[in-house]
């Protein structure tokens, strides 16, 4: 497939790149979308990449804030994942959300761009997030219908068994690690039928933790990550408050030389 010169990535923390820290980049993160753009840009001097995703955004926010901005950039390729932050809320109307999702995908598809969508991850092995598994399964079926109706490509995250390995996740247990993001970039490029030269970092050996060590690790996770997340929900605040998109306009992927 030929994606010409304009790739625009939409969504929340998943697409912004949270979990793959890089102080040299805007918002301090890299992520799978940056890696994907860098691969697509090789050999294409006119390639431009925009990433409008912001952590903490819910689906309706993504549709309202990012879709029109993406259309204005005249993309030839769009990736979009949104909905995980809604699924984690105490109450959610998934059917209503996906109606708005469908309308946004229709707008993006009408540009003629190749559109890539994602299912949600199967959290069956997570002691914390397994309770949302049923919601995610319903969301995924609706996303598959939207993809079929609009001729979008689908990255079926639900079926990626490698993410059952805790080393594919960052310390917050909510976002992919550097290895997880690199692997996701390879998965996306495979759906696009593109070759890549991405190396997934080797996963370090993890000795089995004792019960006491596991309890200490869980307590630290609650203190450093889960607790602050709950506080933000209670205060109706978001981790993305005050943040701007990493790349609001088309730019050259960071790892490649700028073309004069």
TrEMBL record:
One Pfam family cited in the UniProt record for this chain: Lipase_GDSL_2
UniProt GO molecular function: hydrolase activity
InterPro entries: GDSL_Rv0518-like, SGNH_hydro, SGNH_hydro_sf
Limits of the SGNH hydrolase-type esterase domain: 9-182
Alphabetical UniProt keywords: Hydrolase
This protein's name: SGNH/GDSL hydrolase family protein
Superkingdom assignment: Bacteria
UniProt KW Hydrolase keyword: yes
